[in-house]
Design goal:
Elements lengths: L6 E4 L5 H12 L3 E6 L10 E5 L5 H10 L5 E4 L10 H11 L1 H16 L4 E5 L12 H21 L5 E6 L18 H14 L3 E3 L2 H11 L1
Parallel strand pairs: 1-2, 1-4, 2-3, 4-5, 5-6, 6-7
Helix pairs in contact: 1-6, 2-4, 3-5, 4-5
Length: 218
């Protein structure tokens, strides 16, 4: 697929994996809208900073109204609070799950109007494996996986391909304090762009994700 001139929205594009997505799409000639709560935090040249708070209905609706040419949406925005209290878990769901709901509902008509396009949901290996210390994050990603499957069926008729991305630890500031093997953001991005080109529905970005998915199948 030639990404040159294709309009792409990346949420949470000011750092980490989202920034890597924005940089690579821009490198390939796409028109990149880099969504962030604070657009001033988007410092990369070749992208268009967009104020986008996925926890705010009005913010998402305004972005969808403004970005009428988008044909690829990368739902990357995510948080790992790590607390075990209800407020921490609620904060994780607000971004990791309800953020997906908001952007999907707002941009699905935009994608339809532009021929169908692609919706990418960045999930996690924790969509399938729970950990007590990260129970809220894991639950929010599991809910995101379920939503991804439902969205895929819902949007299939309008020609939108919905891709679920599962990965373990990515080498970003979110995982700075975690001592475990990590995959580089650019490696995840390259696999996702290949999936968009091929029309795939799922990306298992590292060995951990592939092993866990295989164990579920078994």
């Amino acid at each position: 697929m030639d990404f040159n001139g294709v309009a792409v929205l990346v949420t949470g594009a000011n750092r980490g994996l989202g920034r890597a997505f924005a940089q690579e799409f821009a490198k390939r000639g796409a028109k990149v809208y880099a969504g962030a709560r604070n657009p001033a935090s988007v410092v990369d040249e070749g992208v268009v900073p967009i104020r986008l708070d996925v926890t705010d209905d009005a913010s998402v609706a305004a972005a969808a109204k403004e970005l009428g040419d988008v044909s690829i949406v990368v739902n990357n925005a995510g948080v790992l609070v790590g607390g075990e209290d209800v407020d921490s878990i609620r904060a994780e769901f607000e971004v990791n799950f309800y953020g997906l709901v908001r952007t999907t509902d707002a941009f699905a008509p935009v994608l339809k109007a532009n021929g169908g396009g692609t919706l990418v949901n960045v999930l996690s290996i924790l969509s399938w494996v729970g950990r007590p210390a990260w129970r809220g994050y894991a639950a929010s990603k599991a809910a995101g996986w379920s939503l991804t499957k439902s969205t895929r069926e819902d949007l299939r008729e309008q020609g939108t391909n919905v891709i679920g991305v599962h990965v373990g630890f990515i080498d970003t500031d979110m995982t700075d304090g975690i001592d475990a093997p990590k995959i580089a953001p650019r490696d995840v991005v390259s696999q996702v762009l290949r999936a968009i080109e091929n029309g795939d529905e799922e990306v298992l970005a590292d060995e951990g994700a592939r092993a866990v998915k295989a164990s579920l199948a078994a």
